[in-house]
Amino acid sequence: MIMSGGTGIWALVLHGGAKAIPPERAEAKREGCRAALRVGASILRGGGTALDAVEATIRILEDDAISNAGRGSARRPGGETEMDAAMMDGATLDLGGVAALRGVRHPVSVARLMLREAPTLLVAEGARHFAEMHGAELDESADLPMLGDAGHDTVGCVALDGHGHLAAGTSTGGLEGSMAGRVGDSALPGCGLYADDLMGAVAFSGDGENIARTLLAARVMQALEEGSPQAAAELAMARLRRVGGEAGGIVLDRAGHVGWAHNSPHFAVGIATSEDGILRTYLWKGEELDLD
């Protein structure tokens, strides 16, 4: 059995969004996930922290224009982008979240800066001001082409480091054409993400309003008290049926065991663990099941 608590065991799981992937973009999606997975796994393999691994992994995904995050973010009616992101430290339960943030290259890094700050969530101009005050890299290039499909290509990552600490992170460009100031689930603890060293870590992608209405991340954390990560992920999908909608979730428990599930046509996922060090990427759950 894999055990945590400073044993050197590590694990990292990322996702590239819960949505149908057109055949012509499937390999690009897989390569984007593989590139991010390689960076995050390298940090953990070298003894780095879960927080560092999650942030670095998501930064790579934010720079991948095929994802609806960072430079690939969906456009609002006026052509501008508004981004949400969050990070959570499982050791301290510190949370940093930003929403409706404009003009920043890496929203996840702004969320990271907010850990151990108060308040835990900033939106719109408040989030932008915080980013500027703390030297975050700005990017006003709203005319960048959006290669990703508008919708649910939110990206996320969960990690366990060799010190037994967990972290979770999310980043999204939201819904194309949505109302200015919209806040989805990605920046909301207990909805789009959560991390607690005593239980595990989770990150979701999908229909943000319905994920928030059903508190999917909180449901997963409750399920981890008695069940496996895979059972917890599947329970969340069952819970979502009450309100409908598509979603996908990735889950790690404190022992480094992995679970993931989705009800969307595709859900790009990358997995790496210290058990064998192999970088595995999947575009839907069936790929993993076919290989088992």
UniProtKB/TrEMBL annotation:
Q: Which GO terms describe its cellular component?
A: cytoplasm
Keywords linked to the UniProt accession: Autocatalytic cleavage, Hydrolase, Protease
Please indicate which residues carry the site annotation Cleavage: 153-154
Q: Name one GO molecular function term.
A: hydrolase activity, acting on carbon-nitrogen (but not peptide) bonds, in linear amides
Pfam families assigned: Asparaginase_2 (PF01112)
UniProt KW RNA-binding keyword: no
Which sites are catalytic? 154
Q: Which SUPFAM superfamilies match?
A: N-terminal nucleophile aminohydrolases (Ntn hydrolases) (SSF56235)
Q: Does the keyword Hydrolase apply?
A: yes
| InterPro entries assigned | Ntn_hydrolases_N (IPR029055), Peptidase_T2 (IPR000246)
Biological process (GO), any one: proteolysis
The name this protein goes by in its record: Isoaspartyl peptidase
Q: Which organism is it from?
A: Muricoccus roseus
Lineage runs:
Bacteria, Pseudomonadati, Pseudomonadota, Alphaproteobacteria, Acetobacterales
